[in-house]
Design a protein that fits this description.
Helix content of chain A: under 10%
Largest interface: A-B, 26 and 30 residues
Oligomer: heterodimer
Structural class of chain A: mainly beta
Helix content of chain B: under 10%
C-alpha cells in the first residue's frame, strides 16, 4: 500500500482557471509534509514544508494546506509557466533515516 | 546561490558494464541522499549518508550497487554490472542538519542513465 497518494495523476487547465491538487498520506508520526515542483528532465525544486494540521503556506499563485490525513496545493489563476509535475513527500517519525517518501506526482498542464 | 552538483548529466551504457555517478552537495550539508526516479514515478531512496556514515541503505541493491562518501563531502554511486532495468534518473540531494528534523532537502539536476 502506497504511503503517499497524489490525485489526479494529470490535470489540464486553461490559463486563469484555478484548481487544487491532492496529496493523502498514511504514515505513523508525520515529521513534515513537503511539496516540490519538477520540470521535465530536471531535479525537484523545493516549494513548501508543512508540519502540523491547519498550517498554510503561500508562494505567488500557490498555496499549500495540511490536515491530519491530506494536503492540498491550491493554484490560483495559473499561468503556462506553472506547467510542471508537482510532487508531494512526507518524512516519517519512525524510520531509520530522514529520507522523504514521495508520491507519484501530479502533472499539470496550463494552456493559454 | 548554492546548488547540489551532479555529473554526468546524461549517461548511456551497455548492459553488464560499470557506471558511476558523482555528487557534490551544498557546502556544509552533512546529510546526503541518493534517490532513483523511474519515468512517471516519484523518487525512491537508495541510500542516505550522515557525514561519511551510511544511515539507511535498506533499499540499495547491494549485489550491484555501491555508494561511498569517504571524506563526508562529495559522494559516488556505482552500478556494476548495469542492467536494462537500471535505466532511470539518479538524483542526489543534501540537507542541513539543524535542531529540527523537518528541514527540506535540495536536489541536484540528476543523471539520466540509459542502459542499452
Amino acid at each position: 500500500e502506497d504511503q503517499v497518494t497524489q490525485s489526479p495523476e494529470a490535470l489540464r487547465l486553461q490559463e486563469g482557471e484555478s484548481s487544487s491538487l491532492n496529496c493523502s498520506y498514511t504514515v505513523s508520526g508525520l515529521r513534515g509534509l513537503f511539496w516540490y515542483r519538477q520540470d521535465p528532465g530536471k531535479g525537484p525544486e523545493f516549494l513548501f514544508t508543512l508540519y502540523s494540521a491547519g498550517e498554510e503556506k503561500e508562494k505567488e499563485r500557490l498555496k499549500a494546506t495540511l490536515t491530519k490525513k491530506e494536503s492540498f496545493l491550491h493554484i490560483t489563476a495559473p499561468k503556462p509557466e506553472d506547467s510542471a509535475t508537482y510532487l508531494c513527500a512526507v518524512r516519517e517519525a519512525n524510520q531509520a533515516g530522514t529520507a522523504l517518501i514521495f508520491g507519484k506526482g501530479t502533472t499539470l498542464s496550463v494552456s493559454s | 546561490e548554492a546548488e547540489v552538483a551532479q555529473s554526468p548529466r546524461y549517461k548511456i551504457t551497455e548492459k553488464s558494464q560499470a557506471v558511476a555517478f558523482w555528487c557534490d552537495p551544498i557546502s556544509g550539508h552533512a546529510t546526503l541522499y541518493w534517490y532513483r526516479q523511474i519515468l512517471g514515478q516519484g523518487p525512491e531512496l537508495l541510500v542516505q549518508f550522515q557525514d561519511e556514515s551510511v544511515v539507511d541503505d535498506s533499499q540499495l541493491p547491494k549485489d550491484r550497487f555501491s555508494a561511498e562518501r569517504l571524506k563526508g563531502v562529495d559522494s559516488t554511486l556505482k552500478i556494476q554490472p548495469a542492467e536494462l532495468g537500471d535505466s532511470a534518473m539518479y538524483l542526489c540531494a543534501s540537507r542541513s542538519t539543524g535542531v529540527s528534523q523537518g528541514t527540506e532537502a535540495f536536489f541536484g539536476q540528476g543523471t539520466r542513465l540509459t542502459v542499452v
